[in-house]
Amino acid sequence: MLPVIVVHGGAGHIPRERSEKSMSGVCYAARAGYSLLQGGASSMDAVVEAVIQMENDPHFNAGRGSVLNVKGDVEMDALVMDGKTLASGAVSAVRNIANPVQLARLVMDKTSHACLTAEGASKFARAVGIPEVSQESLITEYARMRWTKNLAPDANPVESQMGKMGTVGAVAVDREGNIACATSTGGMLNKMEGRVGDTPCIGSGGYADNQTGAVSTTGHGEAIMKVTLARLILFHMEQGQTVEAASDVGLAYMKSRVGGLGGVVTVDPQGGWGARFNS
Ligand SMILES: NC(=O)C[C@H](N)C(=O)O
């Protein structure tokens, strides 16, 4: 079958001066993943490659460019899931690495666990030879500026969170019909130290199942977790809804039930795809 990849760079408000760079960043990532798929690579290889490209791009809230926590530090979450075996790997609250999605994949491939967190994740990264990078190298001037602005007494927390939804993710179906998802984020601006969002939690930040499809989510993590948004959308697809309808129903439920805003990219096993948001 013809392979498909769909990527997202978050569903928040993008300031006009950053929109061109965000657009070219997602296009570049989609092309990088798609050229692997065209060469016969697996959907897992493709989604990881696409997400690495966006983690390396400072215009997104993932890897370099991540938002800062309350202490002004970067702590990142990432997830991968393989729809053939339902294997998954994740890292949460991890520091000092450039590509958390790569580490999430190694958790899946090289451990018997589904998620490693904080210092344990860093130790694992060292053990498998992932180079350590300085916190400074992950922090952009823009992230620092938003953090400082958010500390001001007249800051508008709703406005500043909406600007911070540039989590990245991808879903893909390869030539063999295997499906995968990957999601990576710096989380929410000003989050508490150690806060873990939806992104590394299977069913919330993403889900992939060859029998139904795959979803990668972005938005307010605490709301996404309340409704397990990715799995909820796949449930509606199992009930016969199209990719787009199921995505809209899931997002609408999150909004009406818990007031949550966000966005998703979704694929089905036939290569049908959707990119929907309510933010
Ligand atoms: N930008 C985002 O999508 C944030 C992410 N979902 C989180 O809550 O950590």
Order of helices and strands: EHHEEHEHHHHEEEEHHHEE
β-strand percent reads: 15-25%
**Would you count the extended β strands for me?**
10
The number of distinct helices, counting runs of at least 4 residues, comes to 10
Residues in helix, %: 40-55%
Low-confidence stretches: none
Bound ions, cofactors and other small molecules, one mention each? asparagine
Structural notes for this entry:
It is a single chain. With 279 residues, the chain is of the alpha+beta class. It contains ten helices and ten strands. The protein is globular, with a radius of gyration of 17 Å. It has one domain: (Glycosyl)asparaginase (Glutamine Phosphoribosylpyrophosphate, subunit 1, domain 1). Bound molecules: asparagine. The site of asparagine (ASN) has 15 residues, from strand 8 and helix 8. The site of asparagine has 15 residues, from strand 8 and helix 8. The active site is at 167 (nucleophile).
In short:
This protein is an alpha+beta fold and 279 residues long.
Descriptive labels:
279 residues, Isoaspartyl peptidase/L-asparaginase, globular, 10 strands, Glutamine Phosphoribosylpyrophosphate, subunit 1, domain 1, 40% helix, four-stranded antiparallel beta sheet, 10 helices, binds asparagine, six-stranded mixed beta sheet, alpha+beta
